[in-house]
Amino acid sequence: MERLATLFPVGPEDELEHRGARRRAARYPVHADVRVTGPTEATGVVLNASAGGLRVALQGASEQAWGEGDRLELEVEIDDQVTRDDAEVVWSRQLPDGWLVGLRFLRSASRA
User: Fold this and answer.
1) Beta-bridge partners for 43
2) Per-residue pLDDT of the chain (112 residues; tens, 9 = 90+)
3) Residue among 111, 89, 109 at smallest CA distance from 101
4) How far are the Cα atoms of 12, 72, 87, 103 from residue 69, in angstroms, in the given order?
């Protein structure tokens, strides 16, 4: 399957602002399993996605602090197919049972 980033349309910036910044692509609700495979491991679900990135809820590695700028290798299972993408942490928030994390796809990464 192609990279997840290529499955969503790229269009003009949203009219909405989020935390003072204009979003670059529309968000779409998605429910898919996600697995962080590197440099550490965690599992979770995708909450929404766009051509630019993902918002995910991650469990596991409760001691793990997902810091801005961290680069992650991801496997996302959607419709019984697995995509592999590289992403960068844009923001994260610790929750009682895991983490809520905003990720930006790294387009220059080429993964098989």
Assistant:
1) 35, 59
2) 456 555 555 555 444 444 444 455 677 778 899 999 998 899 999 999 887 889 999 986 556 678 899 999 999 998 888 989 999 999 999 988 889 999 999 975 444 4
3) 89
4) 25, 9, 9, 9
